[in-house]
Design goal:
Layout lengths: L6 H31 L8 H18 L9 H8 L1 H4 L1 H9 L14 H24 L6 H13 L5 H20 L14 H20 L9 H11 L1
Helix pairs in contact: 1-2, 1-10, 6-7, 6-9, 7-8, 8-9
Length: 232
Amino acid sequence: MPIQLSTEQVGLEMLFLCGQLDLLIRAQVHQFQEQLREGCSPEESDTFQAQGAEILDQMLQCLEYLPKPIPQLEDYLDIMGLSAMFPRVEVFLIQGSPVDMLERPPMDDYFCHIARLNQLLVLSQQLEEDVKHLGSHKYIAHQLSVIYQVISSFKGTWSLCHLKKDIETNFKQLKLSLATDEAAKKEPQLSAHYISWILKITNGLTSTVSSLQDEIIEDLSPAMAFVSQLCS
């Protein structure tokens, strides 16, 4: 942590620490559920207690950088809107034990959505590299099908829907074009037409993810709104 933090930096650090603690609480709650299924009494793990205490200590250290009078941690989270974004963290601070929520908190989809966006970007870039540079295109159809599955996990996203339909239209013929006789020694290669088409798909995916259009980042909106308000 830097020697000095501004008020904005404290807010960003708290957002990060709340996210860490929330994930830790969710993991512990999941472990509780597993213990109950096995007929055991739920017990907090040593790892949870140690990591939870460390995160709370970092939160308290962050508060020291705020102008005096320094607020209580719970009050600060309320004022900043972080308790609404991370209700598990709020309950943990009050009760001292990890519990799950009856209603799904607004930040639950954040990390999953970030992971899917990153996966789509990495897979697209890898496919582009392989189409351009590999001597064999044997596994290109499989790579494209994996990308299709990731795209399908984004529901109602128009900018991805037209790319998904494009893949549906061309996939079968592309796969057939790579089919070779088992006795043939020549490695399967895509035609210039299909190479061009795949590059159009990968460029479209990379551009769409990188553009951060509203429909792409909808599940990130609580965090982005927090950061925007903090820096305004």
